[in-house]
Design brief:
alpha+beta; aromatic hydrocarbons catabolism
Length: 91
């Protein structure tokens, strides 16, 4: 099942530069793992905002939630998920 996932990340301003760098590195590493697992399909940045739009694939919403929650920056993300259905013109 495919999902359109939009999220905006707002890290606390109390984090040090080193903590932010470590979080971003860990986020990239986990995203790569999710890509290799076939869950994270495609990502786009939203210009001018700390936001991302992506296509994710999981057997169900619970598995998707577990994948999103495994991201190191998840505690600071505002996430919106839309389940996608195949359009008749795509079959």
């Amino acid at each position: 099942m495919e999902f359109l996932v939009r999220f905006e990340t707002r890290l606390p301003t109390t984090l040090s530069t080193e903590e932010v760098g470590a979080l971003k590195s860990a986020e990239r590493e986990r995203a790569l793992e999710l890509r290799q697992a076939g869950i994270l399909k495609k990502l786009w940045r939203v210009p001018g905002r700390p936001a991302t739009v992506g296509i994710w694939e999981a057997p169900d919403a619970t598995v998707l939630h577990e994948a999103l929650a495994s991201l190191p920056q998840f505690p600071w993300m505002d996430v919106n998920v839309e389940a996608l259905a195949t359009h008749p013109q795509e079959v």
